[in-house]
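At this stage, I needed to go through a protein sequence along with its fold in token form, as given directly below:
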Amino acid sequence: MTDWHVAQKPATAAGTPGYCAIVSHFPNAPLMTYTRNKTGKASLMLDFENAELEKDRKYGVTFTVDGEAENFAARALSKTKLVFQTDNDRIYDSFVQGNPVTVALDGTAGVYTLSGTKQAFAEFN
């Protein structure tokens, strides 16, 4: 079973919009942090714990949802963490509906399936 943690950060007086974040560690898969604000702007951070990424280098990440693949350019924050912007409603909708999402990081042998999201994303909304 995957444990989920959901948190909200309110908008600031300086005008920075608030957002909601959801974090989970999947068995045999990366740690995932997904954030989204009320306007639908979202980012996804993946921590591939055993990766050896080059900081600030761009990497390709492929998400496969319902058999359809989509590629994203992600930036390495550290030797294990990647982040990218995604306003892709298909990925969000798959998380909300609890559909499995497969993640593949270019240049590695790792392919990970993210599942069990439906209950957590009910709280996220």
